[in-house]
Amino acid sequence: MQDARAQERFLRGMARAAAGALLFSLPLLMTMEMWWLGFYLDRLRFFSFLVVAFLFLLPLTYFFGFERTGGLFEDVVDTFVAFGIGAITSAVVLLVFGIIGRGMPLNEVIGKIAIQTVPASFGAVLARGQLGTEASDAESKQKKAGYPGQLFLMGAGAVYIAFNVAPTEEMILIGFKMTPWHALGLVVISITILHAFVFTVGFRGSHGGAPGQAFATTFLRYSVVGYGIALAISLAVLWVLGRTDGASLWQVAMMVAVLAFPASLGAAAARLII
Amino acid sequence: MSARLPDLDKEVASSASRKSPIEWIAGAIGLVLTLSMIGFIGYQALIGGDEAPAAVDVRVVSVQQAGAGFVVEIVASNRSRQTAAGVEVEGVLRRGGAGLERSSMSFDYVPGHSQSRGGLFFTSDPRSGALSVRPVGYHEP
């Protein structure tokens, strides 16, 4: 009786993770640049990207684990499970779409699945927070993690949104079309929206201390740091995707300004999404 | 969602008095990144130079055997700030009395002050004749 219930709960958790994987990665599974990346991406960069993604997933699993986790070992196991579910979901969808099939070199098939596994496993981990109905201890864990925990969540939100749009050619095309003045405007808008999100979502009704001081502190602690995170993550994502190769410093700055816009939205909305 | 808000208020109120080193470091890094971004783009905006047309040079990097023919690896360098899109490149191989062989390719983009790599295929060995490679045209992105 007890066993059957535990098994049902486990299966339910798996189904929820697969649904989350699908929900979060479907836009990318239907993006052709992502299929190409699977075979032309530099293998060393690809590998380091997968390792970093895993290291990002680990704390995320801690915050929103499939099961209430007991320790680091369980978190590591859960992260592998999320990776596995992400890989299987991606493989099934790519197979059904005819993107992978017989007659393709193994290197290409594995590459195509592996690159999709990253967003899919993000979705698998987040599924608990998004689709779960059971009570979660995510909030108390977040509170305990304090400011560094908040920064990590901002980073995770930035990676998620940035990676969703970065593979498309439009990202670099927008960079080519903009003049420096456009780019400056975009930077200002990014920071403004980031601050508006942080202020309304996270700090509604905050009246501690002098109003001016509260603004300056919040602006520096969350908005400026959040934009810094968005910039760093945008640059890293562009480098992984090979967009920075052969590009001048100026072009890289423009691409980063473009990608940092969605990335900072992701960072700002992390508290809502994640 | 709304249950979280009061916790953050408290967090903000308490953090105003005590700041940990990590907050200073994170704040400093964020500030430096943001300011250098604004500074760099602002500098480019002030010096201008978007109006000049694209200037693309193409040069040969190497010639290698590729399958039944040969491949000439080329690099297109854009010396202007204007990004050139759809850059057509034509290669002509003259081999004395044996006639001409032409090949062409196009780059999707050669971004401003940046380089793009590609290749041209020939059936006869380009090292055996006079090879010239030139950009034919482009359009604005």
Describe the structure.
- Chain A is built from ten helices and no strands.
- With 274 residues, chain A is an all-alpha fold.
- In chain A, helix 3 packs across helix 4 and helix 3 (43-64) packs antiparallel against helix 6.
- The two termini of chain A are 34 Å apart.
- Helix content of chain B is 27%, strand content 43%.
- Chain B has helices at 5-15, 21-47, and strands at residues 56-66, 69-78, 84-94, 100-110, 115-122, 130-139.
- At the A-B interface, helix 6, helix 7, helix 8, helix 9 and helix 10 of A face helix 1, helix 2 and strand 5 of B.
Task: Briefly characterize the structure.
The complex is a heterodimer of chains A (274) and B (141). Chain A is mainly α.
Topology overview:
The complex is a heterodimer of chains A (274) and B (141).
Chain A: H1 2-29, H2 32-40, H3 43-64, H4 72-97, H5 106-131, H6 138-165, H7 170-177, H8 180-202, H9 211-240, H10 249-273
Helix pairs in contact in A: 1-4, 1-5, 2-5, 3-4, 3-5, 3-6, 4-5, 6-9, 6-10, 7-10, 8-9, 8-10, 9-10
Chain B: H1 5-15, H2 21-47, E1 56-66, E2 69-78, E3 84-94, E4 100-110, E5 115-122, E6 130-139
Antiparallel strand pairs in B: 1-2, 2-5, 3-4, 3-6
Which class do the helix and strand fractions of chain B yield?
alpha+beta
Sum up the overall morphology of chain A in one term. Answer: flat
Derived structural class of chain A: mainly alpha
Provide the succession of SSEs of chain B. HHEEEEEE
Q: Give me the oligomer status.
A: heterodimer
Mean pLDDT of chain B: 84
The portion of residues assigned to helices of chain A is over 70%
Q: Tell how many strands the DSSP assignment of chain B holds.
A: 6
**Range of strand content of chain B:** 35-45%
Beta-strand residue fraction of chain A: under 5%
Which stretches of chain A are poorly predicted, pLDDT < 50 over at least 5 residues?
203-210
- In sequence order, what are the helices and strands of chain A, one letter per element? HHHHHHHHHH
